[in-house]
Design a protein that fits this description.
Layout: H1 21-33, H2 39-42, H3 62-65, H4 78-88, H5 105-111, E1 121-125, E2 132-136, H6 138-144, H7 146-153, E3 162-165, H8 170-182, H9 192-201, H10 205-217, H11 224-233, H12 237-249, H13 251-256, H14 265-272, H15 281-298, H16 305-312, H17 326-331, H18 341-352, E4 372-375, E5 377-381, E6 390-400, E7 404-412, E8 419-429, E9 432-443, E10 449-460, E11 466-473, E12 480-484, E13 487-490, E14 493-499, E15 516-520
Subcellular location: Cytoplasm
Keywords: Cytoplasm
Pfam family, one: BTB
């Protein structure tokens, strides 16, 4: 028996000659029939030695003895890695006794990943002109997927050496095979949707769940509309709900993103019907026109007014044009050319006439989202020498236990009558600016808080501390908070506060400025 040590080096070969007692007895009988009474002397000597190994140590599994090494980090993308694996993955086995180099069944199984060794089926994956031929092993695939089991061992199984799969991208198919063979999940932003499609098609639920988790983690206003479309296609209600949360709160960013123009008509209609869409209607109108132009290109139509109306169909009337500000309508929608002359006249009459005409457009304003306010002080006060602002920074850190969208801050105003303040607000995570805005607000001399808004709501992930800062410029003293709380329950959201090293004007957990966080949840 050839022996190798744990490093794969050859050791001495041991040869065992085993003769069972029953065999010796039978040979003795045959010899006695020939009248040879001393047959035992003519038989080969039976040599045996029984060696008993005893140990007091607890028995270990192979995986405990040879822990699997973590793969080294690389700077290449997952797609490049998969393409490289397809070219020179495991097609050459380093030694004839390679099985002895891998102590666990999972590692030995992983050697077969994308390997022609013992492959009994091949897949031609990808659309025409972009295919890759990938090897497979029916038994391994059938163990990992019920679809592969039915394909290779079911009642309607076909004995084909080559299977064409034109609707799956090669990188996504390799990601699925890697999970089936190696029990490893490698996902990348540019292939995760295609991998989810493959996992759904071949019913690999744990991989599909990992893809959904990856998408939820990377969800933002830039990709929310596309992911909404895909989540409905893949029937993933949790992901759909997450997409709606982002689209509602950051509607204007989502509508202005490039991904909005890539959605299908059904998703477009569902967004336009949304009551909680937190956006100006002129932004919705402009986004729909951009979508119509791209859709004309997809249908190989010239982007004329007639063709834009054609691809939009009845979805055009889901834009709530009568709810626009009059200036937005007069300078925007009325001059876009997308409306007929009669539609334009009727909408102008809707704004101005006492007797309003009937319109095909929805005339009821959207409800939008109601902002929530997290107030962190139990009382407020003012003194003759506080709270002064000379260009110094008031700052506080906070963390939430659920994803929210910070729309702005509530700030204290003047304690000496009405006054105007200039406020530069900022939101950072680990030193990176996520949102900032420079604006003015007028205080009436009361102890109320006054809202200052970001241009767009900022997405806040749970269990991570963010830094809220404001630099105020004003001549008058202001109120300030007292008896601050380190933890505040605001609806279903728990907010924790801690002091910030950026604060140079005295604001902290116990007192100071930034009494309120204004957010959508």
């Amino acid at each position: 028996i050839p022996m190798v040590d744990e490093k794969g080096k050859n050791m001495k070969c041991l040869t065992f000659f085993l003769m069972l007692p029953e065999t010796v007895k039978n040979r003795s009988k045959k010899s006695s029939k020939k009248g040879n009474s001393s047959s035992s002397s003519k038989l080969p000597p039976v040599c045996y030695e029984i060696i008993t190994l005893k140990t007091r140590k607890k028995k270990k599994m192979a995986a405990d003895i040879f822990p699997r090494k973590k793969p080294a980090n690389t700077n290449t993308t997952a797609v490049q890695q998969y393409h490289q694996q397809n070219l020179n993955n495991n097609n050459t086995i380093p030694a004839p006794n390679w099985q002895g180099l891998y102590p666990t069944i999972r590692e030995r199984n992983a050697v077969m990943f994308n390997n022609d060794l013992m492959a009994d089926v091949h897949f031609v994956v990808g659309p025409p002109g972009g295919t890759q031929r990938l090897p497979g092993h029916k038994y391994v695939l059938a163990v990992g997927s019920s679809v592969f089991h039915a394909m290779f061992y079911g009642e309607l199984a076909e004995d084909k050496d080559e299977i064409r799969i034109p609707d799956v991208e090669p990188a996504a198919f390799l990601a699925m095979l890697k999970y089936i063979y190696c029990d490893e999940i490698d996902l990348a932003a540019d292939t995760v949707l295609a991998t989810l499609y493959a996992a759904k098609k071949y019913i690999v639920p744990h991989l599909a769940r990992a893809c959904v988790n990856f998408l939820e983690t990377s969800l933002s206003a830039k990709n929310a509309c596309v992911l909404l479309s895909q989540s409905c296609l893949f029937e993933e209600p949790d992901l759909t709900q997450r997409c709606w949360e982002v689209i509602d709160a950051q509607a204007e960013l989502a509508l202005k993103s490039e991904g909005f123009c890539d959605i299908d008509f059904q998703t477009l209609e569902s967004i336009l019907r949304r009551e909680t869409l937190n956006a100006k209607e002129i932004v919705v109108f402009e986004a729909v026109l951009n979508w119509a132009e791209v859709e004309c290109q997809r249908q190989e139509l010239t982007a004329t007014i007639e063709n834009k109306r054609k691809v939009l169909g009845k979805a055009l009337y889901l834009i709530r044009i009568p709810t626009m500000a009059l200036d937005d309508f007069a300078n925007g929608a009325a001059q876009s050319g997308i409306l007929t002359l009669n539609e334009t006249n009727d909408i102008f009459l809707w704004y101005t006439a006492a007797k309003k005409p009937e319109l095909q457009f929805v005339s009821k304003p959207r409800k939008g989202l109601v902002p929530q306010r997290c107030h962190r002080f139990q009382s407020c006060a003012y003194r003759s020498n506080q709270w002064r602002y000379r260009g110094r920074c008031d700052s506080i850190q906070f963390a939430v236990d659920k994803r929210v969208f910070i729309a702005g801050f509530g700030l204290y105003g003047s304690s000496c009558g009405s006054a105007e303040y200039s406020a530069k607000i900022e939101l950072k995570r680990q030193g990176v600016i996520l949102g900032q805005n420079l604006s003015k607000y007028f205080s009436d001399g009361s102890s109320n808080t006054f809202p200052v808004w970001f241009e767009y709501p900022v997405q806040i992930e749970p269990d991570t501390f963010y830094t809220a800062s404001v630099i105020l410029d004003g001549n008058e003293l202001s109120y300030f908070g007292q008896e601050g709380m380190t933890e505040v329950q605001c609806g279903k959201v728990t907010v924790q506060f801690q002091c910030s090293s950026d604060s140079t004007n005295g604001t902290g957990v116990q007192g100071g400025q930034i009494p309120e966080l204004i957010f959508y949840a």
